[in-house]
Write a structure and sequence with these properties.
This protein is an all-alpha fold. It has one domain. It is built from 11 helices and no strands. The chain is globular and about 60 Å long.
Length: 307
């Protein structure tokens, strides 16, 4: 689908999400989860997982989402560091082959896209240095400026979710003389600060801090592969969302919110879940020595033994 959208339709790959950034962010989590599962030793179909990771990497490149490229790099390194004890002998050779295949895939399928997006960023930067805010980079910088000003006006409780569009539209008109409209500030925490103030942003940050703390504790103390895989899911979630949220959406999008809850709940369950042993006193009550049987069945039963 990403290849079709890239070459046939001539647009950035966005899958069925309708948004290239959202598409790439979800794929980033899928790719690193496949790699983590292949390295964990709890899955037998490693080749299928690696092929899925390579395919997802190609789709992420075709999305043209530069910040998710960075998130994929950071998260991939984190997954390798988490599983570094298993990267010995044959596993080390497999990882080297995986990295070589990944590099070859990027060189063959993504070099042109990467070069084009880097050149696009360079031209946007040149325009921004000359005071031009009409480019993609310039619009983001303008949004951050508008958001910081709005946050200073109501720092504690914010303006509310419904005021975001009006604040952005009015800010573009007043500060930059532009007629632009966005529904967020292209920075997750800045959006939270404007909408919910310091209290809301601190609450949002606490979710990531607690999740990262739980994952770090499991990775430090546990050797169980399932628990470590769950903790790896949480680490991938935190890194991906925080990195991509610097220039995009952190929460507040239906797909991203659903994926966030799936990874957070599933990862926490696998990493921190416990199975309670059944106590003997709580065992099922013993069956009666002989239950009443239907007549047809009772006639077939052997006669009782006479002592």
């Amino acid at each position: 689908l990403a290849v079709y959208q890239q070459y046939r339709l001539g647009i950035r790959a966005e899958g069925g999400a309708g948004n290239a950034i959202v598409f790439a962010e979800v794929l980033c989590l899928a790719v690193v989860t496949c790699v983590a599962a292949a390295l964990s030793g709890i899955e037998r179909y490693r080749i299928a997982l690696i092929c899925a990771a390579l395919g997802g990497t190609i789709a992420i490149i075709y999305s043209g989402t530069r910040i998710v490229w960075l998130a994929l790099l950071i998260t991939g390194i984190a997954v390798l560091l988490i599983n570094q004890q298993k990267l010995r002998g044959r596993n080390a050779v497999r990882v080297l082959l995986l990295l070589a295949a990944l590099a070859a895939t990027i060189a063959v399928f993504g070099s042109q896209t990467i070069a084009g997006r880097v050149a696009f960023l360079h031209s946007d930067w040149d325009a921004l240095t000359h005071g031009d805010h009409t480019t993609a980079l310039g619009s983001r910088v303008a949004l951050w400026d508008i958001g910081l000003k709005a946050f200073r006006e109501m720092p504690f409780f914010g303006h509310g979710v419904g005021a975001t569009r009006l604040l952005i539209k009015q800010g573009f008109q007043d500060q930059f003389g532009m007629d632009e409209g966005f529904n967020h500030f292209h920075n997750g925490f800045l959006t939270a600060l404007v909408q919910a103030g310091v209290l809301g942003a601190v609450t949002l940050a606490a979710i990531f801090v607690v999740a990262a703390r739980n994952a770090a504790r499991v990775l430090r103390d546990s050797a169980d592969p399932v628990e470590r895989f769950g903790a790896t899911m949480i680490v991938a979630l935190v890194i991906t969302y925080l990195t991509a949220g610097m220039t995009g959406i952190l929460i507040g999008h239906d797909i991203l919110d659903s994926v966030f809850m799936i990874f957070l709940v599933s990862g926490t369950y696998l990493a921190c879940g416990r199975q309670a042993a059944l106590v003997e006193d709580q065992a099922l009550p013993p069956l009666v020595e002989r239950q009443a049987l239907p007549p047809a069945v009772e006639s077939l039963a052997p006669p009782p033994v006479v002592q």
